[in-house]
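In response to the reviewer comment on reproducibility (Comment 2.3), we provide here a single inverse folding case reported in full, input and output, so that an independent group could reproduce the run without further information from us. The structure tokens appear first.
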């Protein structure tokens, strides 16, 4: 989110709208938990007055949830479409300007977190990088590196065609 919000519309064909039925299917308890975590993460920020729509982009229980939200921005420089990534990784949000679908959002997440891992591994400042709520130590960097590698090889690899079209 920069000084001038770029309201980019995501590819809604690549997400599933959150419905009560979706949250009652087999295995939905973990989906509900991840979605609740994503909502809480987003609503923590003062620039988000509320959520209008919720979509599930990628969900792998115990690993990752990539959710899309249409929000009520509190300021004109805030995009109305926001991706939130939660799971067994540090949570974050991304705008849709460079991430039109869930695969590109996950790819952007992996890229931004990899920058943090590299800086932390090299003892460099992470102050200007994506926020990660753990100390920037070599041990934490290595734990996150392993998770990111898993996400890239086991999860994102299943969505390569969506990356090519973006």
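Designed residues, in position order:
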């Amino acid at each position: 989110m920069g000084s001038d919000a770029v309201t980019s519309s995501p590819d809604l064909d690549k997400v599933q709208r959150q419905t009560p039925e979706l949250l009652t299917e087999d295995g939905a308890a973990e989906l509900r938990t991840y979605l609740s975590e994503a909502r809480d993460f987003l609503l923590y920020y003062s620039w988000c007055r509320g959520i209008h729509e919720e979509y599930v982009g990628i969900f792998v229980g115990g690993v990752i949830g990539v959710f899309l939200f249409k929000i009520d921005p509190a300021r004109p420089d805030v995009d109305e479409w926001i991706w939130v990534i939660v799971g067994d990784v540090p949570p974050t949000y991304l705008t849709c300007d460079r991430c039109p679908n869930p695969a590109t959002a996950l790819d952007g997440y992996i890229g931004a977190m990899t920058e943090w891992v590299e800086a932390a591994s090299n003892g460099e400042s992470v102050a200007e990088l994506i926020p990660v709520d753990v100390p920037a130590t070599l041990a934490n960097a290595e734990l996150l590196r392993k998770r990111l590698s898993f996400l890239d090889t086991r999860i994102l690899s299943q969505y390569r065609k969506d990356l090519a079209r973006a």
